[in-house]
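Hi, here's the filled form for the chain we discussed.

Project: internal
Contact: R.S.
Residues: 191
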Amino acid sequence: MLLLTLFLMFAKIALFNFGGGFAMIPLIASEMDKFQWLTSQEFMDIIAISQMTPGAIAVNTATYVGYSVAGIWGAVVSTIAIPFPSLILVITLYPILDKYKNHPVLKMIFYGLRPVVAGLIIAAVYFVAKTAMINQDYVGESIITIISNFFTSINFGSLALTVVAFIIALKTKISPVILLLAGAILGILIF
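And the returned structure, exactly as it came back:
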């Protein structure tokens, strides 16, 4: 039953995902929260590993989540579930989309999807930043507690690494792999 739940969950996420793997992160996080399979920190670690390993982040994340939840068969089922809806849609809908690709309604649909994709990617950035830079031990339930503990809850080392990586990524053409390796090494040294 767990394997079927994993398959249906990842197939549903893949079916309604527009914008690639990063747009899937908030959807997967929501499901992890609903099923209480992983903590935010465990999920954040999976995202970090998924980003560092070769391949699409959506497939890598599904594979690692599936493995964490149900072992090797969970990884297999979750990995297969990600491309499955796309395969079915491409086979069934391609002739229709190809025939009407210049239709104004279809164009409007895709114009409407673009800002939603941007919002999902921004939500993924927020989730990753919140989990990576806020020490969850100090964050309370109420907004007053969060504000009062703001300076004690921020991990300034993580914040500094984020800002430096952001600046380097924008100003240089350095490989993301080098940035990830440098972050891993600095994580060992700093934290």
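Let me know if anything looks off before we file it.
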